[in-house]
Amino acid sequence: MATHYHLIISTLIILSNILPSHQNHFATTPPLPILPLPSYSQLKWQQREIIFFHHFGVNTFTNSEWGTGKESPKIFNPKGLNTTQWVDVAVQMGVSLSILTAKHHDGFCLWPSKYTDHSVIGSPLQDGHGDVVKDFADAARAGGVDIGLYLSLWDRHDYRYGKTIAYNEYYMGQLQELLNK
């Protein structure tokens, strides 16, 4: 009797491992992803843990949160500007992306824009030949840090702001300058 009992139990164990279970027979497949799926760039953005945002411009020298667009470029006079130091700190902190405000609402450009004199061209920085954006981009590339540039849509300095076609042409020109750095 015991032999028959062991034979029945062994057969049931073998059959339960071979035959599909009742539970698996009714299992549903996982749902398909909901479209659209994020791109590689979007996933990378979500996986970044620390991002630096450098807000540096004429209002750094006026001690005000927002500039008016009426500031003289001559007040932009950073002594000992070292964008490599910014990137070194970013790397030490584990930052994978650093964003620089290339132009904020006051309209002051941290690069020598051919579209306005409200930029480093009119500042004492390297006798009007400075280019904070280029220095920053070069330092970030050398340090292996991705960069972003913030170019404000609002420009409190430029007379074309609010005149759609003229301002859009102006803005697109500045955007092209930055994209080619």
TrEMBL record:
SMART domains reported for this sequence: Alpha_L_fucos (SM00812)
SUPFAM superfamilies xref list: (Trans)glycosidases (SSF51445)
InterPro entries given in the database record: GH, Glyco_hydro_29, Glyco_hydro_29_N
Protein name: alpha-L-fucosidase
PANTHER family: ALPHA-L-FUCOSIDASE (PTHR10030), ALPHA-L-FUCOSIDASE-RELATED (PTHR10030:SF37)
This enzyme's EC code(s): 3.2.1.51
Extent of the signal sequence: 1-23
Organism in which the protein naturally occurs: Helianthus annuus (Common sunflower)
Keywords carried by this UniProt record: Glycosidase, Hydrolase, Signal
GO terms under biological process: carbohydrate metabolic process
Residue ranges constituting the Glycoside hydrolase family 29 N-terminal domain according to the UniProt record: 70-180
GO molecular function terms noted in the UniProt entry: alpha-L-fucosidase activity
Protein family according to the UniProt entry: Belongs to the glycosyl hydrolase 29 family.
Ranges annotated as spanning the membrane: none
One Pfam family, short name: Alpha_L_fucos
